[in-house]
Backbone:
């Protein structure tokens, strides 16, 4: 088991040159795609230390994205729960309403550097699609976004946003028609035009170098949050938590805290229950396997085929998880917990009603964990990565739950 003391030089050594975090990660690709991913790796290694690239990214973050996003103390919600104080890192206030733009602007800049003409990606909740379409518009590039037919219906406002930004939204029509199928279709699309396009993966998943690139671009979240939290309170938080789909917002938040004496918790979706197809809690029920070009923890059947997954949050609906998370769990530095749909929805309504912030359903999973934690503590603090805002979810939520009175009543009666 590793502790925070073992993480001082972590970033220098992980991933290794083959893209592995311990036994997880790698670049498991059809041979024709290997040169394209190697080209991306080399270009990234060149530019990530280049002062012009770094300065341009800093300028974009400040002037276009509106960074730094604030840390906010939820005073009303905390006092409702007891004595533990809940804080939010407000990635919902990042331009386009979620953390996804942090890596999309970096990937767009990388595409420009490589002289690519098109950005290609998948999307689940539509947040990555919107963020990438935004980056494409900003940099003057074409953009193809693959999205499951089910998610196209569920996340309608984001589909309109992508189209308005000039992206082609291409439905994935096979299988469960959600996030995994969108990734399958995006890979197929990329295979046809990898010379002129770049695949901008939507999370800290996929073949090397993407888990590393996405982590590096997202790490601004944790770096800012640590400084801001210290400035506000004079201390570090006792616990840091974030929702985990593929793991981009979580790894971005966690990285700065790995070498600090802070408990770190990733929160997965337990959906409707523990049966096959009822959840997407890969860490809880999965085992080592390969999907979409990398080795990680995978929800799989006896033949290694990915199992069907479900979550009320389209962006958490993925049968695997980023390889760095698999490693961090294996070495015991990060704990992974699961929260079900109802707990997430209760958190959604509580934050809306007690703090005036409507969170994304994905982020509500992390918040639900923080609420449970705060109820069981007599002191201390927990910092939640509020990865996105809930505007994209309100039509769906209102139709299903109205204004959430039953959740609020249940909470008061507990
Ligand atoms: C707001 C928000 N939070 C979290 C996620 C989950 O993705 P990740 O685990 O890569 O942060 C998504 C995915 O779409 C999202 O839209």
Residues:
């Amino acid at each position: 088991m590793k502790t925070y003391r073992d993480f001082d030089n972590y970033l220098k050594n992980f991933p290794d040159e083959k893209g592995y975090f311990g036994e997880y990660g790698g670049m498991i690709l059809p041979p024709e795609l290997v040169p394209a991913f190697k080209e991306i790796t080399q270009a990234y290694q060149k530019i990530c230390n280049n002062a012009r690239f770094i300065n341009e990214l800093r300028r974009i973050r400040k002037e276009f994205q509106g960074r730094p996003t604030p840390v906010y103390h939820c005073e009303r919600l905390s006092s409702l729960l007891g004595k533990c104080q809940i804080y939010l890192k407000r990635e919902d206030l990042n331009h386009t309403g979620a953390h996804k733009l942090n890596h999309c602007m970096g990937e767009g800049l990388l595409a420009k550097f490589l002289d690519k003409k098109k950005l290609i990606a998948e999307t689940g909740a539509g947040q990555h699609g919107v963020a990438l379409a935004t980056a494409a518009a900003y940099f003057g590039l074409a953009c193809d976004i693959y999205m499951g037919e089910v998610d196209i219906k569920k996340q309608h406002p984001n589909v309109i946003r992508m189209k308005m930004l000039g992206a082609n939204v291409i439905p994935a029509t096979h299988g469960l028609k959600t996030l995994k199928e969108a990734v399958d279709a995006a890979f197929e699309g990329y295979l046809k035009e990898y010379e002129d396009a770049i695949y901008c993966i939507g999370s800290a998943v996929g073949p090397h170098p993407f888990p590393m690139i996405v982590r590096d671009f997202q790490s601004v979240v944790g770096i800012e949050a640590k400084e801001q939290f210290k400035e506000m309170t004079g201390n570090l938080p006792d616990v840091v938590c974030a929702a985990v789909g593929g793991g981009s917002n979580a790894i971005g938040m966690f990285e700065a805290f790995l070498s600090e004496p802070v408990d770190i918790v990733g929160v997965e979706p337990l959906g409707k229950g523990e049966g096959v197809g009822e959840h997407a809690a890969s860490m809880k029920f999965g085992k080592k396997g390969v999907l979409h070009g990398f080795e990680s923890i995978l929800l799989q059947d006896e033949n290694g085929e990915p199992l069907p997954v479900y979550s009320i949050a389209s962006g958490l609906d993925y049968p695997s998880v980023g390889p760095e998370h698999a490693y961090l769990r294996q070495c015991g530095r990060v704990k992974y917990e699961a929260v079900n749909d109802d707990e997430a929805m209760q958190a959604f309504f509580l934050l809306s009603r007690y703090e005036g912030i409507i969170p994304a359903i994905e982020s509500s999973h992390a918040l639900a964990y923080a609420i449970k934690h705060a109820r069981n503590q007599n002191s201390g603090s927990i910092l939640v990565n509020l990865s996105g805002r809930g505007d994209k979810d309100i039509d769906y939520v209102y139709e299903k739950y109205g204004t959430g009175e039953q959740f609020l009543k249940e909470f008061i009666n507990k």
Observations:
- The pocket of pyridoxal-5'-phosphate is lined by residues 98, 124-125, 127-128, 203, 243-250, 315-316, 360, 362-363, 387-388 (CB under 6 Å).
- The mean pLDDT is 97.
